[in-house]
């Protein structure tokens, strides 16, 4: 549940903040949410601790990958892929096939968003753990 | 224990963000570009993108109603000129902001700011060229002149306010995609920028400094050969004004006296500034009611310009009390340039008369603070031009101004032996917007004549037709009253008698009004016969002009469909003039089977440059080979720019001479006669054609020529529309070439209510991510036309209305 909540909070707040501020604000949002929701790992096993950190990365990654990829997908759909097709043809030098369509650009957008979210969330979480320990 | 992990993670994150934020590994900021909230995705406009039904536009004096039709053409209904121009500015900026700004940046020599130096400094050199041509000075003078007229001042200021109102609605995420790719932001518009755009057009249409190469040629070949290679009137000229016209009784102004002991002497300019491509041409004509099937005049115009995306034209209807006009506008300037209203129609072709002169300057010393003129030393005005370069330190260039104009070539530019100052009619203060406002509101011949009488530069052939039954054509623009050959060669900047001494009164410009033949036309040919009493020179086309006159003389009861067919006519008179002779020369040549096939194909050909024919490809290959065989040894690789003789002249020489000095080739003494040249060029051309293109589909003319319509920035290749299967050639009426051609085809039937048809190769939207970007191109290639909808009033209805907007 907590994992879903994290994803939802990061995505929703990033969406709101990005309407007004440049892309790096998403990193700040992911960092802050993860910091606020960071918890000292329960003293059970070594393995759980590790997975907790990767969970925060995964939550941040998924939140922004879904947000960026989803928005890109929506805008592309509304545009009937006119622009994305031209840009993939240019950037990837593909004349036809799936690489000349919207797919590579939507995926790349999701990946970039995901990496920003993942790393920032992981850092926020680690910061929380460091401060609270 | 946890801090090191945190710090490591933080560094990774910051590193990632830095990599995305700064254009380190990539030419642009990946984070900004891919961010779907602000980057390129925001330029992917929705399919049903429309303005809101109501827009508040501050500064409007009254309500403005706009209807967009299914092709995205705005039909603007305003109560006054101010509101009309303001709304036009707003809507044009909405569709074409980046293009407007980019063209004007180019004109001002400021492209390096946004694209850098370019490969081999190409962009920087182009910018330097534009500054040295005095473009900004010309625009400043034009704006000063424009402000003297209340109507034109208001139009430019209101248009500017409209453009800036649109820019103010934009956040960075809304910028056109080109700004995001090149990472810069729009600047605000100004009336000066509109004037710069007009000077940019003047440059495109009139900046041809033939005198430098021709002076080189005169030195190299001597006078007799020069006259043979560059005759003032070439083979079979058919001027705009019918040859039998008598001029002499009208002349009032004598030519200035020809200076004595002037010999255009040694000159050397190795590197000329960028010039617009030669042979930009256009066709226009009007037929009177007795030639047309409707009994009313009809008018046709197709200006041939560089074909780019976004297209150079933007369609619009402009309506206010007393005016209802439809046509194409230049994005960046108010009004329409070519169009029609309920009473008249007008069209333009380029005048092609030389309005540029170069003056050799003698500076006092290396400090260049004074130059010699008429027995004394005159002061030089010095200005330092700064070139801001994207991502690099600025570059400086010093400009020197004489009373002739700016020194364009000196030791810092053009590798010239002596400094040359530029005198160009576009530098003269002028108010050319006034002409177009006048034409838009014209109701009859008198209004048209009044409107064009003040027109200055670039000189145009204004064709005209009215519902009252008049047709006319005037070549209008300021022309110098020259002594014979003044300005044909580089002039002496120290002599007073070499200065411009007055202009030809506009009433005596070449013109035709309601001629007996029932038609008037122009296609960049000579304006008048040698009987015309004033001296002028220029570089003129011949074949299209002759073809139009032939078609209009031979046909009666013409419909608008006929006129469209004429615009699409692919018949090349040049081929008709020379090919039969070339084929005859093959009679004595033993041919192999392949050559026989080619000969038969060409013999059967009707000189039509249809895209799906092979014959035009073969003729062109042969002709090019023959042309190079004649001229290559004289002109290829010359150390100074020399003008290659025109194809018209070459055709004339070939028809006239079996043997000639220029046929001879030093490297091959077996080539002496026309027969030998024709035979050798045929063999070489045929053999190399089939060796080079083994596949049959590559033989078609549309493959050999074809058309590429490229995006203006030349950065993203997929924004181009390349390899279009077009028909036509530069000397046919359908003057399509690889990157130039009919930029707007328009046919207007005047009558109780005008009917008109038109198309341009592009689309109303300037956004490569919009379906309207290249919407018309396929129809243009096919030769289709759209009916142009001149709405009667703001409530006029048709089923193809896309949306309506009210501005308050």
Computed Rg of chain B: 28 Å
**Biggest interchain interface, per-side counts:** A-B, 39 and 40 residues
Helix content of chain B: 25-40%
Query: Which stretches of chain A of 5+ consecutive residues score pLDDT under 50?
Result: none
- Quick one: how many beta strands of chain A? 0
Shape of chain B: globular
Distance between the termini of chain B: 66 Å
> What's the order of the H and E elements of chain A?
HHHHH
Distance between the termini of chain A: 24 Å
Give the spatial strand order of the biggest sheet of chain B. 1-29-2-3-7-8-9-10-18-19-21
Strand content of the residues of chain A, in percent? under 5%
Total number of helices of chain A: 5
Detail the poorly predicted runs of chain B.
none
Helix/strand-derived class of chain B?
alpha+beta
Structure in words:
The complex is a heterodimer of chains A (133) and B (808). Chain A is an all-alpha fold and 133 residues long. Chain A is built from five helices and no strands. Chain A has helices at 2-18, 25-36, 46-78, 82-92, 103-132. Chain A is elongated. The two termini of chain A are 24 Å apart. Chain B has 808 residues and is an alpha+beta fold. In chain B, 32% of the residues lie in helices and 18% in strands. In chain B, the strands form six sheets. Chain B has an eleven-stranded mixed sheet with strand order 1-29-2-3-7-8-9-10-18-19-21. In chain B, strands 4, 5, 22, 25, 26, 27 and 28 form a seven-stranded antiparallel sheet that branches. In chain B, helix 11 (432-441) packs antiparallel against helix 12, helix 15 runs parallel beside helix 18 (647-656) and helix 17 (615-635) crosses helix 19 (674-692). The longest helix of chain B has 27 residues, at 81-107. Chain B is globular, with a radius of gyration of 28 Å. The mean pLDDT of chain B is 92. At the A-B interface, helix 3, helix 4 and helix 5 of A face helix 1 and helix 2 of B.
């Amino acid at each position: 549940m907590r994992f879903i909540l994290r994803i939802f909070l990061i995505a929703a707040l990033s969406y709101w903040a990005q309407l007004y501020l440049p892309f790096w604000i998403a990193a700040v949002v992911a960092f802050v949410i993860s910091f606020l929701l960071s918890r000292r790992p329960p003293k059970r096993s070594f393995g759980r601790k590790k997975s907790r950190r990767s969970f925060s990365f995964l939550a941040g990654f998924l939140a922004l990958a879904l947000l960026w990829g989803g928005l890109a997908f929506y805008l592309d759909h509304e545009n009937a892929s006119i622009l994305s097709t031209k840009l993939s043809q240019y950037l990837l030098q593909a004349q036809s096939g799936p690489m000349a369509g919207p797919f590579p650009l939507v995926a790349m957008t999701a990946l970039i968003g995901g990496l920003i979210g993942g790393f920032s969330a992981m850092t926020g979480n680690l910061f929380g753990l460091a401060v609270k320990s | 224990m946890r801090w090191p992990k945190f710090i490591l993670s933080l560094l990774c994150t910051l590193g990632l963000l830095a990599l995305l934020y700064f254009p380190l590994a990539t030419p642009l900021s990946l984070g900004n570009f891919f961010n779907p909230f602000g980057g390129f995705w925001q330029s992917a406009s929705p399919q049903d993108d429309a303005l809101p039904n109501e827009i508040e536009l501050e500064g409007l004096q009254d309500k403005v109603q706009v209807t967009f039709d299914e092709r995205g053409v705005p039909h603007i209904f305003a109560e006054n000129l101010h509101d009309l121009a303001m709304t036009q500015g707003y809507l044009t900026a909405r569709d074409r902001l980046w293009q407007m700004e980019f063209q004007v940046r180019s004109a001002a020599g400021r492209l390096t700011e946004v694209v850098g130096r370019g490969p081999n400094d190409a962009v920087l050199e182009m910018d330097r060229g534009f500054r040295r041509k005095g473009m900004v000075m010309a625009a400043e003078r034009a704006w000063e002149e424009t402000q003297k007229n209340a109507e034109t001042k208001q139009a430019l200021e209101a248009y500017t306010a409209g453009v800036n109102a649109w820019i103010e609605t934009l956040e960075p995420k809304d910028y056109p995609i080109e700004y995001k790719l090149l990472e810069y932001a729009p600047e605000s518009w100004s009336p000066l920028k509109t004037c710069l755009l007009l000077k940019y057009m003047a440059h495109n249409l009139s900046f041809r400094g033939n005198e430098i190469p021709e002076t080189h040629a005169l030195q190299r070949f001597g006078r007799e050969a020069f006259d043979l290679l560059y005759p003032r009137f070439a083979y079979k000229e058919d001027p705009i004004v019918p040859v039998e016209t008598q001029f002499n009784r009208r002349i009032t102004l004598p030519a200035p006296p020809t200076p004595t002991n002037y010999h255009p002497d040694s000159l050397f300019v190795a590197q000329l500034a960028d010039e617009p491509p030669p042979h930009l041409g256009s066709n226009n004509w009007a037929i009177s009611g007795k030639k047309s099937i409707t009994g009313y005049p009809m008018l046709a115009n197709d200006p041939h310009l560089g074909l780019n995306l976004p297209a150079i034209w933007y369609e619009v209807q402009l309506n206010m009390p007393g005016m209802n006009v439809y046509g194409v506008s230049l994005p960046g300037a108010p009004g329409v340039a070519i169009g029609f209203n309920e009473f008249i129609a007008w069209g333009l072709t380029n005048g092609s008369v030389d309005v540029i002169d170069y003056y050799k300057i003698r500076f006092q010393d290396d400090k260049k603070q004074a130059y010699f003129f008429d027995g004394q030393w005159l002061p030089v005005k010095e200005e330092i031009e700064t070139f801001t370069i994207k991502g690099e330190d600025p570059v400086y260039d010093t400009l020197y101004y004489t009373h002739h104009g700016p020194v364009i070539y000196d030791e810092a530019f053009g590798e010239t032996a002596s400094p040359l100052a530029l005198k160009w009619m576009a530098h003269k203060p002028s108010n050319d917007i006034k002409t177009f406002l006048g034409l838009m509101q014209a109701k009859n011949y008198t209004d048209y004549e009044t409107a064009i009488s003040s027109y200055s530069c670039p000189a145009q052939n204004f064709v005209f037709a009215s519902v009252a039954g008049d047709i006319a054509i005037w070549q209008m623009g300021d022309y110098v009253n020259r002594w014979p050959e003044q300005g044909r060669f580089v002039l002496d900047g120290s002599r007073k008698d070499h200065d411009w001494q007055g202009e030809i009164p506009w009433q005596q410009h070449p013109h035709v009004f309601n001629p007996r033949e029932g038609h008037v036309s122009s296609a960049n040919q000579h304006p008048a016969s040698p009987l015309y009493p004033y001296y002028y020179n220029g570089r003129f086309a011949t074949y299209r002009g002759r073809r139009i006159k032939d078609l209009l003389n031979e046909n009666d009861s013409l419909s608008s469909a006929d006129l469209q067919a004429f615009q699409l006519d692919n018949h090349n008179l040049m081929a008709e003039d020379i090919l039969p002779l070339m084929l005859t020369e093959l009679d004595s040549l033993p041919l192999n089977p392949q050559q026989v096939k080619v000969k038969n194909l060409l013999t059967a050909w009707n000189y039509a440059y249809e895209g799906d024919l092979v014959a035009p490809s073969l003729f062109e290959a042969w002709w090019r080979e023959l042309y190079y065989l004649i001229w290559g040894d004289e002109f290829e690789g010359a150390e100074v720019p020399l003008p290659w003789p025109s194809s018209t002249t070459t055709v004339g020489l070939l028809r006239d001479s079996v043997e000639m000095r220029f046929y001879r080739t030093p490297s091959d003494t077996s080539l002496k006669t026309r027969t030998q040249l024709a035979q050798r060029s045929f063999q070489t051309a045929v053999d190399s054609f089939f060796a080079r293109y083994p596949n049959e589909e590559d033989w078609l003319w549309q493959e050999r020529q074809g058309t590429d319509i490229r995006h203006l920035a030349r950065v993203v290749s997929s924004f181009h529309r390349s390899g279009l299967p077009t028909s036509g050639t530069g000397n046919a009426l359908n003057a399509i070439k690889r990157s130039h051609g009919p930029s707007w085809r328009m046919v207007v039937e005047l009558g109780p209510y005008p009917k008109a048809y038109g198309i341009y190769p592009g689309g109303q939207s300037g956004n490569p991510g919009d379906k309207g970007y290249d919407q018309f191109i396929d129809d243009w290639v096919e030769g289709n036309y759209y009916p142009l909808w001149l709405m009667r009033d703001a409530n006029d209805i048709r089923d193809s209305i896309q949306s309506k907007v009210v501005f308050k």
